[in-house]
Fold:
Amino acid sequence: MADESYHMTPQQFRAYGRDVVDWIANYYEEIETLPVLSQVKPGQIRSALPPDPPRHPESFEAILSDMNRVVLPGITHWQSPNFFAYFPANASGPAILGDLMSSALGVQGMLWATSPACTEVETHVLDWLVAMLGLPEKFLSSSSGGGVLQDTASSSSLCAMLAARERATNYRSNRRGCQEGLVAYTSTQAHSSIEKAVMVAGIGTDNLRLIEVDSTFAMRPDLLSDQIQRDRDAGLLPFFVSATVGTTSSNAIDPLAAIGDICHANNIWFHVDAAMSGTAALCPEFRHIQHGVELADSYTFNPHKWMFTNFDCNCFYVANRKALIDTLSILPEYLRNQATESGEVFDYRDWHIPLGRRFRSLKLWFVIRYYGVEGLQFQVRRHVAMAQQFLEWVKRDKRFEVAAPAPLNLVCFRHRGGDKINEDLMNRLNRSGDLYLTHTRLNGQFTLRLCVGQTNTTEHHVERAWSRIQEEAGKL
Ligand code: PLP
Structure:
């Protein structure tokens, strides 16, 4: 028969789709009963899979049932309300459904012309976020700058560095390779993505200066300024500074205003990495963390961390989009089209490294509309309040000490008994499956981190986490 095929029909899709949505809803109902940290051994998941791919079609029922049998045991439940590790990668119903819509439309939005809605919804949502987060108006698409969605903060920090490199070398590096003694700066506490960016951008890790921090783990502007001067005196070309709003280790907040002034005085590109803590700026009372952001040339934050938008979703803003586009734009004949030639549209392929791009803004648009600004603010405030409550409990227990300021939703703390005790305590808690938390080192000491940012975490989960920590500490 001419119309015979192996494809799933719309009728089948409807039926299986219902099964999948039920599976997801059941998963969320039962997630608390599952051990947060996956308990499997290396190779265990693969050993449950057949060595060869199926020669013949399998039933959808068989595929779905392997989600329970094969996949779930190997899942660390990032969406569990008892997940307090790293920084969150939270999700929500509207985000998941928005992502499904994006999959369904399946558009490739590299150019405005290849799906105008993909570009225009994205531009619009990113403009909304400028107002929602109190960011400078120069990041609006209606001014000299604009925002774009990328996969991760790592990618957008790399793009910032590339644009900074080209600005500093008058676009020579793109042609000849990077030969101009460029030097980049960030703090000792910055995320490793900045180090990776200097590797990928051809700057070289020898030319990344890690500036020392103060007692709150924030970058010291005086030392930054001294280092820039030393590099200038040595005939080098300082071109890029990345400051962090909410470092990964301890949520330290670099002083943006002072750092931005130094960048301006030295004609250096000023990038701000607010990967997780940027979300806090939804609430006016937390916006002090980004005081000075108006001096930034670029800014990155991840709705896929704390803003209920499932991975991956990063917002990247530049003050001068021309610098970014001139850095990354190449126009082969096969992409030429009238809309591009007219100059009236954004072609987001020129704003990041990949050519192809999906309709990633749909999930963010769904989230912002479903929660509304007040809903997002409510949830963020609640997370911060829970973390602050946890901080109080830690302070009151003489066995523990607080290891760093906790301005928002991350608490760094440690048992006074030393590194070994803290490591044992963490391992016992994580092995129990009751909760998951991770560690860092601050001033050389093993330090526990508890971050409250999971969508469904409530006061009761944080209370339970603290009582489990106390209980295990009592056994050490
Ligand atoms: N910057 C900071 C401050 C982070 O905490 C992280 C991740 O935790 C990143 C960058 C990297 O984020 P991504 O995974 O989106 O590249």
In short: The chain has three domains: 1-33+38-75, 107-358, 378-475. The longest strand covers residues 237-244. The first helix runs from residue 10 to 30.
